[in-house]
Design brief:
Helix content: over 70%
Shape: rod-shaped
Order of helices and strands: HH
Number of strands: 0
Distance between the termini: 27 Å
Strand content: under 5%
Structural class: mainly alpha
Number of helices: 2
Largest sheet: none
Length: about 90
């Protein structure tokens, strides 16, 4: 019995699109981190801001940075998978 292997190439475009979407999401996460840090800096100069707000926003920004890094890594993995089909 002969079985045909699926055409891996048919998935290349979808994987490339997904990798690009992941990179775009990573950029968004970096922008969110920047905004959170800007807000923390603004609140740092505000005497009525709660003490916890700055550190909390900084932790959230760090999480956004981590997410951006992970999204970029996932995009690289997809691109490597597409390249492995060559």
């Amino acid at each position: 019995m002969v079985t045909e292997s699926p055409d891996v190439r048919s998935y290349d475009t979808e994987l490339l699109d997904q990798a690009e979407a992941l990179r775009s999401d990573a950029g968004l996460m970096e922008e969110y981190a920047r905004r959170l840090r800007a807000t923390a800096a603004t609140l740092g100069g505000c005497p009525t801001a709660p003490e916890w707000s700055g550190p909390t926003l900084e932790r959230q920004a760090a999480c956004c940075d981590t997410a951006a890094e992970q999204l970029r890594t996932a995009a690289e993995v997809l691109l490597a998978h597409v390249g492995a089909g060559d």
